[in-house]
Amino acid sequence: MSSFSWRVWLALVLLFFPSTVAADESSLLEGWRDVWVFRFLVNMLGYSTIIIPGYLLISYFKRTNYLDTGFGICFPVIKSCVFGSEAKSGLLDDVSVAPRNEGNSGSSVRQVMKLIFCAAGLQASYLTWGVLQERVMTRSYGAQTPEEEGEKFKDSQFLVFMNRILALTVSGLWCIMFKQPSHGAPMYKYSFASFSNILSSWCQYEALKYISFPTQVLAKASKVIPVMLMGKIVSHKSYEYWEYFTAVLISVGVSMFLLSSTPSKHPSTVTTFSGIIILVGYIVFDSFTSNWQDNLFKYKMSSVQMMFGVNLFSCLFTVGSLLEQGAFFDSLSFMTRHSEFAFHAVLLSVCSACGQLFIFFTINQFGAAVFTIIMTLRQAIAILLSCFLYGHAVTLVGGFGVAVVFLALFLRVYARSRMKAGRRPAQSMGQRV
Fold first, then answer.
1. Fewest Cβ atoms nearer than 10 Å: which of 21, 197, 316, 367?
2. Per the confidence metrics, is the pTM higher than 0.90?
3. 298: exposed, middle or buried (C-beta count within 10 Å: 0-12, 13-18, 19+)?
4. Where are the transmembrane segments (predicted)?
Protein backbone atom coordinates (compact mmCIF):
# COMPACT_ATOMS: atom_id res chain seq x y z
CA MET A 1 0.00 0.00 0.00
CA SER A 2 1.28 3.50 -0.81
CA SER A 3 2.58 5.84 1.89
CA PHE A 4 -0.43 8.09 1.24
CA SER A 5 -2.84 5.25 2.07
CA TRP A 6 -0.93 4.45 5.24
CA ARG A 7 -1.16 8.13 6.25
CA VAL A 8 -4.92 8.11 5.68
CA TRP A 9 -5.26 5.09 8.00
CA LEU A 10 -2.96 6.81 10.49
CA ALA A 11 -5.15 9.92 10.46
CA LEU A 12 -8.21 7.79 11.20
CA VAL A 13 -6.38 6.09 14.06
CA LEU A 14 -5.34 9.42 15.57
CA LEU A 15 -8.92 10.63 15.26
CA PHE A 16 -10.09 7.82 17.58
CA PHE A 17 -6.95 7.71 19.75
CA PRO A 18 -5.91 11.37 20.26
CA SER A 19 -3.57 10.46 23.13
CA THR A 20 -1.11 9.05 20.62
CA VAL A 21 -0.72 12.34 18.70
CA ALA A 22 2.41 13.26 20.61
CA ALA A 23 4.20 10.10 19.50
CA ASP A 24 6.56 10.03 16.56
CA GLU A 25 4.64 9.49 13.32
CA SER A 26 7.00 6.96 11.80
CA SER A 27 7.10 4.85 14.94
CA LEU A 28 3.31 5.04 15.14
CA LEU A 29 3.03 3.83 11.57
CA GLU A 30 5.32 0.88 12.20
CA GLY A 31 3.56 0.11 15.47
CA TRP A 32 0.10 0.04 13.96
CA ARG A 33 1.26 -2.25 11.17
CA ASP A 34 1.85 -4.84 13.89
CA VAL A 35 -1.70 -4.56 15.30
CA TRP A 36 -3.83 -7.40 13.97
CA VAL A 37 -7.02 -5.30 13.78
CA PHE A 38 -5.23 -2.77 11.59
CA ARG A 39 -3.87 -5.48 9.28
CA PHE A 40 -7.31 -7.08 9.07
CA LEU A 41 -8.92 -3.77 8.06
CA VAL A 42 -6.22 -3.09 5.47
CA ASN A 43 -6.74 -6.57 3.98
CA MET A 44 -10.50 -5.99 3.86
CA LEU A 45 -9.90 -2.69 2.08
CA GLY A 46 -7.81 -4.54 -0.51
CA TYR A 47 -10.51 -7.18 -1.03
CA SER A 48 -13.17 -4.49 -1.41
CA THR A 49 -11.33 -3.03 -4.44
CA ILE A 50 -12.01 -6.35 -6.19
CA ILE A 51 -15.39 -7.28 -4.69
CA ILE A 52 -17.19 -3.95 -5.27
CA PRO A 53 -16.34 -3.63 -9.00
CA GLY A 54 -17.18 -7.32 -9.43
CA TYR A 55 -20.56 -6.84 -7.73
CA LEU A 56 -21.35 -3.84 -9.93
CA LEU A 57 -20.45 -5.75 -13.11
CA ILE A 58 -22.54 -8.79 -12.15
CA SER A 59 -25.50 -6.56 -11.26
CA TYR A 60 -25.16 -4.78 -14.60
CA PHE A 61 -25.11 -7.99 -16.64
CA LYS A 62 -28.14 -9.36 -14.80
CA ARG A 63 -30.07 -6.10 -15.00
CA THR A 64 -29.51 -5.72 -18.75
CA ASN A 65 -30.51 -9.35 -19.44
CA TYR A 66 -27.12 -10.00 -21.03
CA LEU A 67 -27.83 -13.73 -21.34
CA ASP A 68 -30.37 -12.98 -24.11
CA THR A 69 -28.79 -9.91 -25.69
CA GLY A 70 -25.05 -10.59 -25.37
CA PHE A 71 -22.77 -11.72 -28.17
CA GLY A 72 -19.13 -11.65 -29.22
CA ILE A 73 -15.92 -13.27 -28.06
CA CYS A 74 -16.50 -12.40 -24.37
CA PHE A 75 -20.02 -13.86 -24.23
CA PRO A 76 -19.04 -17.45 -23.21
CA VAL A 77 -16.75 -16.15 -20.46
CA ILE A 78 -19.35 -13.73 -19.05
CA LYS A 79 -22.05 -16.39 -19.28
CA SER A 80 -19.92 -18.89 -17.34
CA CYS A 81 -18.93 -16.35 -14.68
CA VAL A 82 -22.29 -14.67 -14.11
CA PHE A 83 -25.04 -17.06 -15.22
CA GLY A 84 -23.55 -20.54 -15.40
CA SER A 85 -24.52 -23.12 -17.98
CA GLU A 86 -26.85 -25.47 -16.13
CA ALA A 87 -29.79 -25.34 -13.74
CA LYS A 88 -29.31 -26.30 -10.09
CA SER A 89 -29.80 -29.98 -9.41
CA GLY A 90 -31.92 -31.06 -6.48
CA LEU A 91 -29.91 -34.25 -6.11
CA LEU A 92 -26.27 -34.81 -5.33
CA ASP A 93 -25.96 -38.03 -7.29
CA ASP A 94 -23.64 -36.53 -9.91
CA VAL A 95 -21.37 -34.64 -7.55
CA SER A 96 -18.70 -37.33 -7.58
CA VAL A 97 -17.10 -38.42 -10.79
CA ALA A 98 -17.04 -42.02 -9.66
CA PRO A 99 -19.17 -43.77 -7.08
CA ARG A 100 -17.59 -44.41 -3.70
CA ASN A 101 -15.96 -47.80 -3.50
CA GLU A 102 -17.40 -50.09 -0.89
CA GLY A 103 -15.48 -52.48 1.30
CA ASN A 104 -16.35 -55.54 -0.81
CA SER A 105 -15.21 -54.00 -4.10
CA GLY A 106 -11.78 -55.62 -3.80
CA SER A 107 -9.80 -57.97 -1.65
CA SER A 108 -9.63 -57.19 2.05
CA VAL A 109 -5.83 -56.93 1.88
CA ARG A 110 -6.09 -54.36 -0.87
CA GLN A 111 -8.63 -52.35 1.11
CA VAL A 112 -6.39 -52.43 4.19
CA MET A 113 -3.45 -51.22 2.11
CA LYS A 114 -5.59 -48.41 0.71
CA LEU A 115 -6.67 -47.42 4.21
CA ILE A 116 -3.08 -47.39 5.45
CA PHE A 117 -2.09 -45.28 2.43
CA CYS A 118 -4.89 -42.78 3.09
CA ALA A 119 -4.20 -42.58 6.83
CA ALA A 120 -0.44 -42.18 6.30
CA GLY A 121 -0.96 -39.54 3.63
CA LEU A 122 -3.35 -37.49 5.77
CA GLN A 123 -1.19 -37.77 8.89
CA ALA A 124 2.04 -36.91 7.07
CA SER A 125 0.50 -33.98 5.19
CA TYR A 126 -1.30 -32.32 8.07
CA LEU A 127 1.13 -33.11 10.89
CA THR A 128 3.96 -31.61 8.82
CA TRP A 129 1.70 -28.68 7.92
CA GLY A 130 0.89 -28.04 11.60
CA VAL A 131 4.53 -28.17 12.73
CA LEU A 132 5.61 -25.83 9.92
CA GLN A 133 2.73 -23.47 10.58
CA GLU A 134 3.82 -23.00 14.18
CA ARG A 135 7.49 -22.72 13.16
CA VAL A 136 6.83 -19.99 10.58
CA MET A 137 4.52 -17.88 12.73
CA THR A 138 6.22 -18.11 16.13
CA ARG A 139 9.96 -18.40 15.44
CA SER A 140 12.48 -16.03 13.86
CA TYR A 141 14.78 -16.56 10.89
CA GLY A 142 18.38 -15.56 10.27
CA ALA A 143 19.70 -15.74 13.85
CA GLN A 144 23.24 -17.12 13.83
CA THR A 145 23.53 -17.46 17.61
CA PRO A 146 20.98 -18.01 20.42
CA GLU A 147 21.59 -14.43 21.58
CA GLU A 148 20.47 -12.92 18.25
CA GLU A 149 16.77 -12.17 17.81
CA GLY A 150 16.62 -12.78 14.08
CA GLU A 151 13.74 -11.65 11.88
CA LYS A 152 10.14 -12.84 12.14
CA PHE A 153 7.81 -13.21 9.19
CA LYS A 154 4.62 -11.27 9.91
CA ASP A 155 2.42 -11.33 6.80
CA SER A 156 -0.12 -14.13 7.22
CA GLN A 157 -1.87 -13.16 3.99
CA PHE A 158 1.18 -14.08 1.90
CA LEU A 159 1.17 -17.59 3.39
CA VAL A 160 -2.53 -17.89 2.48
CA PHE A 161 -1.65 -16.86 -1.08
CA MET A 162 1.17 -19.41 -1.26
CA ASN A 163 -1.19 -22.19 -0.13
CA ARG A 164 -3.91 -21.18 -2.57
CA ILE A 165 -1.74 -20.74 -5.68
CA LEU A 166 -0.31 -24.25 -5.35
CA ALA A 167 -3.74 -25.74 -4.58
CA LEU A 168 -5.11 -23.94 -7.66
CA THR A 169 -2.33 -25.42 -9.81
CA VAL A 170 -2.82 -28.95 -8.46
CA SER A 171 -6.62 -28.89 -8.81
CA GLY A 172 -6.37 -27.37 -12.30
CA LEU A 173 -4.01 -30.13 -13.46
CA TRP A 174 -6.30 -32.73 -11.88
CA CYS A 175 -9.33 -31.36 -13.77
CA ILE A 176 -7.34 -31.50 -17.03
CA MET A 177 -5.98 -35.01 -16.49
CA PHE A 178 -9.16 -36.69 -15.21
CA LYS A 179 -12.72 -36.49 -16.48
CA GLN A 180 -14.98 -34.19 -14.49
CA PRO A 181 -18.76 -33.56 -14.53
CA SER A 182 -20.07 -30.85 -16.82
CA HIS A 183 -19.71 -27.63 -14.83
CA GLY A 184 -22.87 -25.57 -14.41
CA ALA A 185 -22.47 -23.23 -11.41
CA PRO A 186 -21.94 -19.49 -12.01
CA MET A 187 -18.28 -18.91 -11.24
CA TYR A 188 -18.93 -15.84 -9.09
CA LYS A 189 -20.69 -18.01 -6.50
CA TYR A 190 -17.32 -19.52 -5.55
CA SER A 191 -16.22 -16.06 -4.40
CA PHE A 192 -18.40 -16.22 -1.27
CA ALA A 193 -16.75 -19.41 -0.01
CA SER A 194 -13.38 -18.11 -1.17
CA PHE A 195 -13.74 -14.83 0.73
CA SER A 196 -14.67 -16.55 3.99
CA ASN A 197 -12.00 -19.21 3.39
CA ILE A 198 -9.11 -16.75 3.07
CA LEU A 199 -10.33 -14.87 6.14
CA SER A 200 -10.51 -18.09 8.17
CA SER A 201 -7.03 -19.09 6.96
CA TRP A 202 -5.66 -15.63 7.79
CA CYS A 203 -7.14 -15.90 11.29
CA GLN A 204 -5.64 -19.37 11.66
CA TYR A 205 -2.11 -18.12 10.94
CA GLU A 206 -2.53 -14.84 12.81
CA ALA A 207 -3.85 -16.52 15.97
CA LEU A 208 -0.55 -18.34 16.48
CA LYS A 209 1.08 -15.00 17.29
CA TYR A 210 -1.09 -14.80 20.43
CA ILE A 211 -2.04 -18.34 21.48
CA SER A 212 -0.45 -21.78 21.58
CA PHE A 213 -0.90 -24.35 18.83
CA PRO A 214 -2.67 -26.86 21.16
CA THR A 215 -5.23 -24.17 22.01
CA GLN A 216 -5.80 -23.54 18.32
CA VAL A 217 -6.27 -27.25 17.58
CA LEU A 218 -8.88 -27.58 20.35
CA ALA A 219 -10.69 -24.48 19.12
CA LYS A 220 -10.81 -26.00 15.62
CA ALA A 221 -12.19 -29.22 17.12
CA SER A 222 -14.97 -27.19 18.76
CA LYS A 223 -16.05 -25.59 15.51
CA VAL A 224 -18.86 -28.16 15.25
CA ILE A 225 -20.87 -25.78 17.47
CA PRO A 226 -20.81 -22.74 15.14
CA VAL A 227 -21.09 -25.10 12.15
CA MET A 228 -24.41 -26.30 13.59
CA LEU A 229 -25.51 -22.71 14.18
CA MET A 230 -24.54 -21.71 10.65
CA GLY A 231 -26.27 -24.83 9.36
CA LYS A 232 -29.51 -23.67 10.93
CA ILE A 233 -29.10 -20.11 9.66
CA VAL A 234 -27.68 -20.70 6.15
CA SER A 235 -28.97 -24.16 5.22
CA HIS A 236 -31.99 -24.48 7.61
CA LYS A 237 -30.74 -27.86 8.84
CA SER A 238 -32.10 -29.80 11.80
CA TYR A 239 -29.92 -31.80 14.21
CA GLU A 240 -30.31 -34.82 16.48
CA TYR A 241 -30.18 -34.66 20.29
CA TRP A 242 -26.84 -36.52 20.39
CA GLU A 243 -25.33 -33.83 18.19
CA TYR A 244 -26.29 -31.16 20.73
CA PHE A 245 -25.02 -33.35 23.59
CA THR A 246 -21.59 -33.90 22.01
CA ALA A 247 -21.38 -30.19 21.15
CA VAL A 248 -21.89 -29.37 24.84
CA LEU A 249 -19.21 -31.94 25.81
CA ILE A 250 -16.78 -30.31 23.40
CA SER A 251 -17.52 -26.88 24.88
CA VAL A 252 -16.88 -28.20 28.41
CA GLY A 253 -13.60 -29.85 27.38
CA VAL A 254 -12.30 -26.75 25.58
CA SER A 255 -13.28 -24.55 28.54
CA MET A 256 -11.41 -26.83 30.94
CA PHE A 257 -8.28 -26.64 28.81
CA LEU A 258 -8.40 -22.86 28.37
CA LEU A 259 -9.15 -22.06 32.01
CA SER A 260 -6.42 -24.38 33.27
CA SER A 261 -3.73 -23.04 30.93
CA THR A 262 -0.93 -21.34 32.83
CA PRO A 263 1.09 -18.56 31.22
CA SER A 264 4.64 -19.52 30.31
CA LYS A 265 7.72 -17.46 29.65
CA HIS A 266 7.47 -18.30 25.98
CA PRO A 267 5.11 -15.85 24.20
CA SER A 268 3.62 -18.53 21.95
CA THR A 269 1.99 -20.25 24.92
CA VAL A 270 0.24 -17.22 26.35
CA THR A 271 -3.45 -17.19 25.57
CA THR A 272 -4.48 -13.57 25.07
CA PHE A 273 -7.77 -11.86 24.47
CA SER A 274 -6.65 -10.99 20.92
CA GLY A 275 -5.93 -14.64 20.22
CA ILE A 276 -9.39 -15.69 21.41
CA ILE A 277 -11.06 -13.03 19.25
CA ILE A 278 -9.08 -14.14 16.18
CA LEU A 279 -9.98 -17.78 16.89
CA VAL A 280 -13.66 -16.87 17.09
CA GLY A 281 -13.27 -15.17 13.71
CA TYR A 282 -11.63 -18.29 12.30
CA ILE A 283 -14.45 -20.54 13.54
CA VAL A 284 -17.21 -18.24 12.23
CA PHE A 285 -15.63 -17.79 8.79
CA ASP A 286 -14.80 -21.49 8.47
CA SER A 287 -18.34 -22.48 9.48
CA PHE A 288 -19.79 -20.22 6.78
CA THR A 289 -17.39 -21.68 4.20
CA SER A 290 -18.44 -25.29 4.81
CA ASN A 291 -22.16 -24.47 4.74
CA TRP A 292 -21.88 -22.35 1.60
CA GLN A 293 -19.96 -25.15 -0.11
CA ASP A 294 -22.71 -27.60 0.89
CA ASN A 295 -25.23 -25.39 -0.88
CA LEU A 296 -22.94 -24.98 -3.87
CA PHE A 297 -22.66 -28.76 -4.26
CA LYS A 298 -26.33 -28.73 -5.32
CA TYR A 299 -24.88 -27.87 -8.70
CA LYS A 300 -23.33 -30.78 -10.52
CA MET A 301 -19.62 -30.64 -9.69
CA SER A 302 -16.82 -32.72 -8.24
CA SER A 303 -14.84 -31.90 -5.11
CA VAL A 304 -11.80 -31.04 -7.22
CA GLN A 305 -13.86 -28.58 -9.27
CA MET A 306 -14.95 -26.99 -6.01
CA MET A 307 -11.30 -26.84 -4.93
CA PHE A 308 -10.34 -25.15 -8.21
CA GLY A 309 -13.16 -22.57 -8.13
CA VAL A 310 -12.59 -21.54 -4.50
CA ASN A 311 -8.81 -21.31 -4.90
CA LEU A 312 -9.14 -19.31 -8.12
CA PHE A 313 -10.93 -16.48 -6.32
CA SER A 314 -8.69 -16.86 -3.27
CA CYS A 315 -5.63 -16.18 -5.43
CA LEU A 316 -7.36 -13.20 -7.04
CA PHE A 317 -8.31 -11.65 -3.69
CA THR A 318 -5.01 -12.24 -1.92
CA VAL A 319 -2.64 -11.25 -4.73
CA GLY A 320 -4.68 -8.08 -5.36
CA SER A 321 -4.58 -7.10 -1.69
CA LEU A 322 -0.86 -7.95 -1.37
CA LEU A 323 0.07 -5.87 -4.43
CA GLU A 324 -1.97 -2.89 -3.27
CA GLN A 325 -0.25 -2.96 0.13
CA GLY A 326 3.21 -3.49 -1.35
CA ALA A 327 3.46 -6.57 0.86
CA PHE A 328 3.85 -9.02 -2.01
CA PHE A 329 7.36 -7.90 -2.94
CA ASP A 330 8.27 -7.40 0.73
CA SER A 331 7.44 -11.05 1.35
CA LEU A 332 9.41 -12.16 -1.71
CA SER A 333 12.33 -10.12 -0.40
CA PHE A 334 12.04 -11.93 2.95
CA MET A 335 12.15 -15.24 1.08
CA THR A 336 15.34 -14.25 -0.74
CA ARG A 337 16.98 -13.16 2.53
CA HIS A 338 16.02 -16.36 4.35
CA SER A 339 16.22 -19.52 2.26
CA GLU A 340 14.99 -21.57 5.22
CA PHE A 341 11.73 -19.61 5.24
CA ALA A 342 11.35 -20.10 1.48
CA PHE A 343 11.69 -23.87 1.96
CA HIS A 344 9.18 -23.85 4.84
CA ALA A 345 6.65 -21.74 2.90
CA VAL A 346 6.82 -23.98 -0.17
CA LEU A 347 6.64 -27.19 1.89
CA LEU A 348 3.70 -25.72 3.82
CA SER A 349 1.85 -25.16 0.55
CA VAL A 350 2.72 -28.62 -0.78
CA CYS A 351 1.39 -30.26 2.40
CA SER A 352 -1.81 -28.23 2.21
CA ALA A 353 -2.48 -29.11 -1.46
CA CYS A 354 -1.60 -32.82 -1.02
CA GLY A 355 -3.72 -32.95 2.13
CA GLN A 356 -6.78 -31.73 0.22
CA LEU A 357 -6.31 -34.44 -2.43
CA PHE A 358 -5.95 -37.09 0.29
CA ILE A 359 -9.20 -35.81 1.83
CA PHE A 360 -11.09 -36.29 -1.44
CA PHE A 361 -9.57 -39.74 -2.07
CA THR A 362 -10.23 -40.99 1.49
CA ILE A 363 -13.85 -39.86 1.51
CA ASN A 364 -14.37 -41.38 -1.95
CA GLN A 365 -12.89 -44.74 -0.92
CA PHE A 366 -14.05 -45.14 2.70
CA GLY A 367 -16.65 -42.47 3.46
CA ALA A 368 -16.81 -39.50 5.81
CA ALA A 369 -16.85 -41.55 9.05
CA VAL A 370 -13.44 -43.15 8.47
CA PHE A 371 -12.03 -39.82 7.34
CA THR A 372 -13.29 -38.12 10.51
CA ILE A 373 -11.67 -40.77 12.72
CA ILE A 374 -8.32 -40.34 10.94
CA MET A 375 -8.44 -36.53 11.23
CA THR A 376 -9.50 -36.67 14.89
CA LEU A 377 -6.48 -38.86 15.64
CA ARG A 378 -4.36 -36.40 13.68
CA GLN A 379 -5.51 -33.54 15.93
CA ALA A 380 -4.59 -35.50 19.05
CA ILE A 381 -1.15 -36.39 17.66
CA ALA A 382 -0.64 -32.76 16.56
CA ILE A 383 -1.15 -31.54 20.13
CA LEU A 384 1.35 -34.08 21.50
CA LEU A 385 3.85 -33.27 18.75
CA SER A 386 3.57 -29.53 19.36
CA CYS A 387 4.05 -29.94 23.10
CA PHE A 388 7.13 -32.11 22.47
CA LEU A 389 8.77 -29.88 19.83
CA TYR A 390 7.91 -26.43 21.18
CA GLY A 391 7.65 -27.04 24.92
CA HIS A 392 3.97 -26.27 25.57
CA ALA A 393 2.90 -27.13 29.12
CA VAL A 394 -0.45 -28.86 29.72
CA THR A 395 -1.87 -29.22 33.24
CA LEU A 396 -3.73 -32.29 34.54
CA VAL A 397 -7.09 -30.51 34.24
CA GLY A 398 -6.15 -29.31 30.76
CA GLY A 399 -5.22 -32.84 29.72
CA PHE A 400 -8.57 -34.11 31.02
CA GLY A 401 -10.30 -31.38 29.00
CA VAL A 402 -8.46 -32.54 25.86
CA ALA A 403 -9.61 -36.12 26.56
CA VAL A 404 -13.24 -34.94 26.93
CA VAL A 405 -13.06 -33.14 23.57
CA PHE A 406 -11.75 -36.17 21.69
CA LEU A 407 -14.18 -38.49 23.49
CA ALA A 408 -17.03 -36.27 22.25
CA LEU A 409 -15.63 -36.31 18.71
CA PHE A 410 -15.45 -40.12 18.66
CA LEU A 411 -18.99 -40.29 20.10
CA ARG A 412 -20.18 -38.15 17.18
CA VAL A 413 -18.58 -40.54 14.68
CA TYR A 414 -20.03 -43.60 16.45
CA ALA A 415 -23.55 -42.14 16.71
CA ARG A 416 -23.55 -41.04 13.10
CA SER A 417 -22.42 -44.45 11.85
CA ARG A 418 -25.08 -46.21 13.97
CA MET A 419 -27.75 -43.88 12.63
CA LYS A 420 -26.73 -44.57 9.03
CA ALA A 421 -26.63 -48.33 9.71
CA GLY A 422 -30.16 -48.15 11.12
CA ARG A 423 -31.44 -46.41 8.01
CA ARG A 424 -30.15 -49.04 5.57
CA PRO A 425 -32.41 -51.93 6.75
CA ALA A 426 -35.40 -49.59 6.75
CA GLN A 427 -34.66 -48.56 3.16
CA SER A 428 -34.23 -52.18 2.00
CA MET A 429 -37.55 -53.18 3.63
CA GLY A 430 -39.24 -50.27 1.94
CA GLN A 431 -37.93 -51.40 -1.44
CA ARG A 432 -39.24 -54.94 -0.89
CA VAL A 433 -42.72 -53.67 -0.09
1. 21
2. no
3. middle
4. 38-58, 241-260, 266-285, 306-329, 341-361, 368-391, 397-415
